């Protein structure tokens, strides 16, 4: 019960479910979202002493670093990091704009990398720590219309496998989690978008 958790992408879906379960069990949790108010509304007022809501731009290393420092300032340490932020853009590759593709990689892959790079100096100093990187079943299998999303999740899987080997001698553990479908609001709200550019051949 003395483990301190830091969870990104926590205002909905798997991240929110995990935050609520951990707080229910008495853990101390720092959690991030693009909107602090949305995160506070989603979690509610339970266990305010054990909960640190943080507004973070995952694509900005300085924003990520500030949130990690705030976690240490409040709780004194950090034990488990869950890289859970996800952005899904559906459509055939030709249908997606360069901006949509870049945003997918910025959030799903580079956001995860920013968090890992931000926390590793603390983990190395402690000679301990646990990284949980959320990939997807699409991280080893792709479905129709999900080539870009899948490529970001394949990258998370490969990144995690390499990190596990690099960090094991330093006492840091890495796990990749690759969920299939389950009941959250991920597919029903602003986390998933269809392409606005439809090409009839891919109908």
Automatic annotation (TrEMBL):
Keywords: Oxidoreductase. The keyword Oxidoreductase applies. Pfam families: adh_short. It comes from the Bacteria. CDD domains: 17beta-HSD-like_SDR_c (cd05374). Signal peptide: none annotated. InterPro entries: NAD(P)-bd_dom_sf, Sc_DH/Rdtase_CS, SDR_fam, SDR_oxidoreductase. Belongs to the short-chain dehydrogenases/reductases (SDR) family. PANTHER family: SHORT CHAIN DEHYDROGENASE (PTHR43976), SHORT-CHAIN DEHYDROGENASE_REDUCTASE FAMILY PROTEIN (PTHR43976:SF16). This is SDR family oxidoreductase. It comes from Chryseobacterium tagetis. The lineage of its organism: Bacteria, Pseudomonadati, Bacteroidota, Flavobacteriia, Flavobacteriales.
């Amino acid at each position: 019960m003395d483990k301190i958790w830091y969870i990104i992408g926590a205002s909905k879906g798997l991240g929110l479910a995990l935050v609520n379960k951990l707080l229910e069990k008495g853990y101390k949790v720092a959690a991030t979202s693009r909107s602090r108010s949305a995160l506070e509304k989603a979690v509610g007022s339970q266990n305010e002493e054990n909960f640190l809501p943080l507004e973070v731009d995952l694509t900005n290393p300085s924003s990520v670093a500030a949130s990690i420092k705030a976690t240490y300032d409040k709780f004194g340490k950090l034990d488990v990091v869950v890289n859970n932020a996800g952005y899904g853009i559906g459509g055939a590759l030709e249908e997606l704009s360069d901006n949509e593709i870049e945003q997918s990689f910025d959030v799903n892959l580079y956001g995860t990398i920013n968090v890992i790079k931000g926390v590793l100096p603390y983990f190395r100093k402690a000679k301990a720590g646990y990284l949980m990187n959320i990939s997807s079943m699409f991280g080893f299998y792709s479905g129709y219309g999900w080539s870009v999303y899948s490529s970001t999740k394949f990258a998370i899987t490969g990144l995690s496998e390499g990190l596990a080997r690099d960090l094991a001698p330093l006492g840091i553990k890495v796990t990749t989690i690759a969920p299939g479908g389950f009941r959250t609001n991920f597919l029903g709200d602003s986390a998933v978008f269809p392409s606005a550019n439809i090409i009839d051949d891919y109908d």
